[in-house]
Write a structure and sequence with these properties.
The protein is mainly alpha-helical. It has helices spanning about 1-10, 25-30, 40-50, 80-105. It has four helices and no strands.
Length: about 110
C-alpha cells in the first residue's frame, strides 16, 4: 500500500502525465484461484477501456463503414508474478475482443 501511494504521488507531480495508475491487489482478491473476482478489475478499468477504444479499419462487408482509432494502451504489471500479470492482461483483452466481435457484427450479445 505504501508503494501504491508513493507511485501515485510521484505520477501526479509529473507535468502532462496522462496515465492512470490503478492499484489492484490481485493476490488479496483473486488468491487461491478466486478468479470470480476478476470482474471487479474489469469494472475498475471499464471507463479507460472505452476511452482508449480499439483500432479497426473500415469493413463494409461487416456493416462497418468507418474506421475506429485506438488512443492508448494498457500496461499490466504484477510486481512479483508473471502469471498474475498474464491473467489480468488476458481478462482485459477478452473484454476488448468482445467489443471487436460486436463491432464486426460477429457477436450480438456480451
Amino acid at each position: 500500500v505504501a508503494l501504491d501511494k508513493a507511485l501515485s504521488a510521484t505520477l501526479a507531480e509529473m507535468p502532462d502525465y496522462s496515465h492512470r495508475f490503478l492499484p489492484f491487489d490481485f493476490h488479496a482478491l483473486c488468491g487461491k484461484l478466486a478468479f470470480r473476482n476478476l470482474p471487479q478489475l474489469v469494472r475498475e478499468c471499464l471507463d479507460d477501456l472505452e476511452r482508449v477504444s480499439f483500432f479497426a479499419t473500415a469493413a463494409p462487408a461487416f456493416n462497418r463503414p468507418q474506421p475506429s482509432k485506438q488512443s492508448g494502451v494498457f500496461r499490466v504489471n504484477c510486481v512479483d508474478c508473471l502469471d498474475r500479470t498474464n491473467v489480468a492482461q488476458s481478462v482485459l483483452a477478452f473484454r476488448v475482443l468482445l467489443w471487436q466481435l460486436r463491432a464486426l457484427s460477429l457477436m450480438t450479445t456480451e
